[in-house]
Amino acid sequence: MTVHRTPLTRLEEGTPFAQRHIGPDAEARAKMLAQVGFGSLDELTAAAVPEVIRSAEALQLPAARTEAEVLAELRALARRNEVVDSMIGLGYYGTFTPPVILRNVMENPAWYTAYTPYQPEISQGRLEALLNFQTMVADLTGLPTSGASLLDEGTAAAEAMALSRRVGKVKKGVYLVDADTFPQTVAVLRTRAEPTGVEVVVADLSQGLPAEYAEGGVTGVLLQYPGASGAVRDLRPVIEQAHAVNAVVTVAADLLALTLLTPPGELGADIAVGTTQRFGVPMGFGGPHAGYMAVREAHARSLPGRLVGVSVDADGDKAYRLALQTREQHIRREKATSNICTAQVLLAVMAGMYAVYHGPDGLRAIAERTHRYASLLAAGLRAGGVAVAHGEYFDTLTVTVPGRADAILAAAREQGVNLYRVDADTLSLACDETTDRARLAAVWAAFGVSADIEALDASAEDALPGALRRTSTYLSHPVFHAHRSETAMLRYLRSLSDKDYALDRGMIPLGSCTMKLNATTEMEPVTWPEFGSLHPFVPVSQAQGYLELIRELEERLAEVTGYDRVSLQPNAGSQGELAGLLAVRGYHRANGDTARTVCLIPSSAHGTNAASAVMAGMKVVVVKTAEDGEVDLGDLHAKIDKHRDELAVLMITYPSTHGVFEEHVADVCAAVHEAGGQVYIDGANLNALVGLARPGHFGGDVSHLNLHKTFCIPHGGGGPGVGPIGVREHLAPYLPNHPLQPSAGPETGVGPVSAAPWGSAGILPISWAYVRLMGGEGLKEATQVAVLSANYIAKRLEPHFPVLYTGPAGLVAHECIVDLRELTKTTGVSVDDIAKRLIDYGFHAPTMSFPVAGTLMIEPTESENLAELDRFCEAMIAIRAEIEKVAAGTWPAEDNPLRNAPHTARALAGEWEHAYERAEAVFPGHVDPTTKYWPPVRRIDQAFGDRNLVCSCPPLDAYED
Predict the structure, then answer these.
(1) How many domains does the chain have?
(2) H or E segment at 304?
(3) Cα(877)–Cα(824) distance, integer angstroms
(4) pLDDT (tens digit, 9 = 90+) per residue, 501-532?
(5) In the sheet that 271-275 helps form, which strands lie side by side, from edge to edge?
(6) Residue span of the structural domain in which 800 resides
(7) What is the CATH number of the domain that holds 335?
(8) Which residues lie across from 319 on neighbouring strands?
(9) Residues 184 and 220 in one domain
(10) Which end of the chain has fewer CB atoms within 10 angstroms, the N or the C?
């Protein structure tokens, strides 16, 4: 009898995670390689990637681990974080995420794997959720127009500063900031103001404008409400004074407090900004959280970021869309109103749903309970002889304890509570939704105070000023009253996600956006309390697990990119661009080269590049693109020669925005360096380089990376993202830092670009886990399969749609551009028609008309298997045959499935007077009727929406009208 034995070591290995992450298996790869004309992945990438940039050494990363092992490592890191009740405040508060929202939004791939809703017909669910968010913010702030979220409160305040300068009458005055503003907000304002020549003046505005500014010369004013100290004061007098000298007034307001306090709009503010973190979003050691901005109607069309509006579809039915999309950076470039390219959609959805679930009465009750605990805390401290600075406050107390602050701080930590040290004599304490009686008792004990909470509750008065108590209504729309039970809320969330198309349904082949697998193992740790419950300003001794994870991720990203140092603070790719350019600016200024202000940018570059350069105080000079899609070397050298003495930096994307590996990139970098400039390599397309080439080795001085692309943080419907920067050693002294956490950056840094020291730290475990799961070989293999998949699609589609640009050996990088311009010219079928028709076939469209108008840019990623790649190719080929029917006159140019796409179930059931059959409309090609995705609306009228801007939930009669 034969005995079979399998060694235990083999059984313990398990399935390598790379096999789960990468879609095509060995058999599929062989078929794809045969189609492309290569025998192996190594042969393909050797032909595609120019030899001059290829890395000779393998990535020196820890070996790949199994999913179980990586989760165990993350558990060990998490245990090194000490979860202490936080009363630090300063814009970050404990909150309870309703489990129905935690499970069905934050942990639900139908929400977190969706993309920015540029294709609104298949994004109606998240657009409605964002409209809820906008309505919530507009109602609570008392201002009519709110955006669909910004990155955090600090950057929202900086955007308000820029907006004030843009729309105000005073263009060159100072920007006044009240001294009672969150310190991190002041620091971000200073970082953002200095390159653009704005002078930020911090002053005590509690008694009005200082005399020297009462005559004018003030661009704008920022007031915190309630103040950082907790004080609640009537802002109307200082707002009136500011308006008298033509200053634009911004109020940074706490939305929970606004359920009880007169809103900024009623006080006279022009702009309101803040964070929605305390509406059910975990603190996450600083982020991600949805910042907000609301403005007066006159400023709606200058609002930075994204704006959801109401329009109509082809049947005249109400439909949602992103409004005023011409403001986006890839169109307006250096004339863009902001460099913000992303938002915080997933977190905005959570905050908006928190308001939907609780409604106005529930929010008011949370606010009243929070305030009541603060009132009782203050009463107990006063009774014990502790001086409380303010008599009117909402949730935060400032107390004076001469010489005792450090001792009390330590005693509170022994009691399991973190307070905030203002100075050696002063502490502040913030109550929140999670505050309870036990926490008050712990605080009193730390102060050496004995208090009877029941007796205090019977006698203590509330501390909100009567003249500022809110009388106006808010959240009156039915959506904030209809979903009180968990059953109703669950079904509402399901109904919205059912309207949308996300990665959980199928491929999203967006060029430049890298919509790849966001593995459940990578996502799981984000909601662990050891990662989610930490305040960003806790003592570093309480965040040792986080700091170890951050250090390891920085080191591993440096290894991947070939740079010496990495900063994880930028909380979006746009902020990474800004941080990288500020580092370049700091380097030149430190060398005395203050005249170096010119930023060379190829005409094909991402539009955020130009917008970021302007924000960094640079002058944009555009470099032409050659016929083959590469940088025009002649024009580049001419521009270098012309601006040699003022050249600061060249920004290029590599592989290029056209989806090719440019062979002369090392020569380009050398030419810039020879002229004294720096090279910024935009890392948006890094998914084509990892394991094959390192930007820091082939000429880059600085790059930002998109962790929400290459390193698997999901797009979340348009955010969150993380955009860290890698730099060579000479730029390291100019990385971002932070005034409240010295270890977050170099002492010589440029200041913070995000409100939190490590930006959106709460989602860094995702990328840490991805790198740990894949190891160096897995990361390289993922890159090679991404390049293979793009070339496979290019080869399959090339007989039907010309591929616009190719690089070495006629190959593309990780994406390809198909040219539709001649087809449109001869048949009238547009890019929009093909994009919308793909919906009928069950696909999200590729990137439309970027970087070349009239084209589609396709990026399949490494995560899609061969069956899905073929399904997409077959859909595109079938659409090409449909275009031929239009060209031949079989279908009229104005009445065909492409022009009328997408087709809804309602359209199918109605009168049918089209020149094509119903089945051709809704079941084209091989679409399976049993699994078909049905779009909820027909094609949306974009122009109507821009002409009739509606940015909050309209009343029901408006829908009927």
Answers:
(1) 4
(2) none
(3) 16
(4) 999 999 999 998 999 999 999 999 999 999 99
(5) 145-146, 291-295, 271-275, 248-253, 218-225, 174-178, 200-203
(6) 786-945
(7) 3.40.640.10
(8) 311
(9) yes
(10) N
